[in-house]
Amino acid sequence: NSVKHPGAVRVVDDDIAEDGAAFLVMELLDGISADHLLEQPGLRPSVRIAAAIGVQLLDVLAAAHAAGIVHRDIKPANLFLTNDGTVKVLDFGIARALDDVGGAQLTGAGMPLGTPAFMAPEQALAKSSEIDARTDVWAAGATLFTLITGETVHSGEVAAQVLVAAATKPARSLASAAPHVPAPIAEVVDRALEFDRAARWTSAVAMRDALVAACLVAGVGAVEKAAISGTLDKEIAQAL
Hints:
mainly alpha; 10 helices
């Protein structure tokens, strides 16, 4: 709730059940998750819709970063598209867990918290002192890459292989995986995916504004909330 943005899922209550388990009561969402679209044949978002999702995602991240919160697990599965076209960012739990344990490792597990396919190099290396807003910028770029191509930035047969690739290999360019993507948009995503943090967009705000400008230059059309709602009506109906 400290994110204070309509794109962050609202927690309305918390309590303890009779068996002692803690629980949260959260707002009810009506729509479909972004990763579900990727699982449905023929439903992969267009470049325009992926960009519209990205713009809203980056706006939520900007609010979170302003509040001193780094999400650390941005991926299509944590993006929910409501029927009115709003992108809701789910699961700020890892951000809280990392703050609580004071590091980037699960006790006893020896693995960084997060999802390997969407981890920035510093996160894959469990360098907790280097995880900042630019870590989320990388994950936002990886999310856009996957929404557009249906593929992850790095590949591997098991999660450990993907983790090693994320920690050691530069990301491949979006243009190499999807030549149809207009160059200005591909360049925005590629900069987000730079191995060196200093070479990435300096903030979610900077990437959001650059993505909007790139879409205008590329002539892909408006990338606002209405674009998602209007285009997803049929897709959501099919997927549900």
